[in-house]
Write a structure and sequence with these properties.
The chain contains 16 helices and 14 strands. It has about 425 residues and is α+β, with helices and mostly antiparallel strands. It folds into three domains: about 90 residues, Rossmann fold (3-Layer(aba) Sandwich); about 80 residues, ATP-grasp fold, A domain (Dna Ligase, domain 1, 2-Layer Sandwich), CATH 3.30.1490.20; about 210 residues, no CATH class. Strands 2-3-1-4-5 form a five-stranded mixed β-sheet, with helices on both faces. A five-stranded antiparallel β-sheet has the order 12-11-10-13-14. α1 crosses α10 and α15 packs antiparallel against α16. The radius of gyration is 23 Å and the shape is globular. It binds adenosine-5'-triphosphate and magnesium ion (MG).
């Protein structure tokens, strides 16, 4: 069967093979989709390559899932060109992820009334090497007493880069010695000093793709393969909804589409600590049980975007959010409700789920069939072999195989 329209999804990749293979396989298995209006659509995928490009070249892609451009400038500039000139839809757009990083996300969420721990931005330990800086620094840099700032915030504290990611440069400091050592070592990184939320009840890490959010129980001190615990109902109904709202609000606010949000939960209060991840971890060896959901959500959302010709919005429009934030008549709960409505409107949540029901009714069964197939096991085995040394292959085959079997069982039950 041929389709009326074919939509091309580009994958701009780093070193990952596991989820791209899963995504490509599922997109191919999805087949031709027929909409209520009688039109038929097909989704194709293609891995992007890096090569010279003329700024007037037209992009062939309708959407690009970007996992690279945060670090590499050539593909980043291609994405910006494709977005500006051909309206290519980006997950995520460098227009917001370059300028709006962890620090901006803290600021926005503070204004929205969320419980971001007390945070101070400290000037560079070693300013960038620039001949003009010496003059500016001598004339305008005010000396400051880091120790007394820390004393007034109270130990322990976290010192971490304002735009951080991947634990780079993060330290937890217990006293002035550790504080000074961490600051000395920060060198040319710009650092936040942040109040530590200690003795929290649970660390929740939420992965959000379009309007879909999975809130997972995270164990940061465990090795990578054990960080996401399979746990249902580990948050109360209210805390779970608040975690979803915070995750979706930060994404809708910044126009992020594919992001993970870290929150510490203590006595039913939610403290967001990190929620600007341009490239959230979706490896099968990290997400295991949750991997099929992540692939489904990525496929559903990107299909919805291309098939319905969703318009990409690349500029932040803070006004409607701050109107709610600045309304003193609303309490925290009322504000969360109002933000959620804005997030739902941004992501067209109702229309999205209706699309999933009408155009993708076969998706759940199709994903279940594939995850239960030998094809998926081969992918899991090759990922394990590429990730771990040979003496650990058997152990991880059992570990991840068991978690996937558990998902298959739960999913079979839930699909009835
Ligand atoms: N304010 C805080 N209170 C308690 N723990 C914190 C706080 N800030 C950071 N942490 C701990 O330090 C870890 C790393 O901090 P953060 O997430 O901000 O940095 P990162 O570089 O983004 O790291 P990652 O890539 O692992 O998320 C967190 O996962 C958490 O365990
Ligand atoms: Mg983090």
């Amino acid at each position: 069967m041929t389709s009326d329209r074919t939509h091309l999804i580009g994958l701009l990749l780093g070193a990952e093979e596991d989820w791209p293979t899963a995504f490509e396989t599922l997109a191919a298995r999805m087949g031709v989709l027929t909409l209520g209006d009688g039109t038929s659509h097909e989704v194709r995928t293609e891995r992007m390559t890096i090569e010279p490009f003329n700024l007037r070249d037209r992009a062939r892609h309708d959407l690009v899932v970007d996992r690279l451009a945060y670090w590499y400038y050539h593909p980043r500039e291609w994405l910006k060109k494709a977005s500006l000139m051909d309206d290519v839809y980006l997950l995520n757009s460098p227009f917001t992820f370059q300028s709006m990083e962890k620090h901006s996300a803290y600021c926005a969420l503070i204004r929205l009334g969320m419980k971001v721990p007390e945070t101070v931005l400290v000037p560079y330990k070693n300013p960038v090497d620039n001949s003009r800086w010496a003059y500016t620094s001598a004339k305008y840099n005010r000396s400051f007493d880091l120790e007394s700032i820390a004393d007034s915030m109270g130990y322990p504290l976290f010192m971490k880069p304002f735009d951080g990611g991947g634990w780079r440069g993060v330290s937890r400091v217990k006293d002035t010695d550790e504080l000074n050592r961490a600051y000395d070592q920060s060198g040319e990184m710009l650092m936040h000093l942040q109040e530590s939320i200690d003795d929290y009840d649970v660390f929740a890490r939420a992965l959000t793709i379009g309007p879909e959010t999975m809130v997972m129980k995270f164990q940061p001190d465990e090795p990578m393969h054990d960080r996401y615990a399979v746990s249902h109902g580990f948050l109360s109904e209210t805390a779970g909804q608040e975690a979803r709202t915070i995750s979706q609000v930060v994404n809708a606010f910044f126009r992020w589409e594919f992001n993970s949000c870290e929150m510490l939960v203590k006595d039913e209060e939610i403290y967001p600590i990190d929620y600007a991840n341009a490239c959230p971890d979706v490896a099968v060896t990290s997400l295991h049980y949750y991997f099929p959901w992540a692939m489904k959500a990525l496929l559903r959302w990107s299909t919805f975007c291309v098939v319905t010709d969703r318009t990409a919005r690349t500029q932040v429009d803070s006004a409607p959010w701050f109107e709610i934030a600045d309304d003193d008549a609303l309490d925290y709960g009322a504000k969360l409700g109002a933000y959620q409505e804005l997030a739902d409107a941004h992501f067209e949540t109702d229309r999205y789920w209706e699309f999933c029901e009408t155009a993708l009714p076969h998706l759940d069964e199709m994903v279940l069939d594939w995850v239960a197939s030998d094809d998926f096991r081969t992918l899991l085995t090759s990922t394990i072999r590429a990730t771990y040394p040979p003496h650990e292959w058997d152990r991880f085959e059992g570990h991840f195989g068991g978690l996937i079997d558990l998902w298959i069982k739960d999913e079979t039950n839930s699909l009835g």
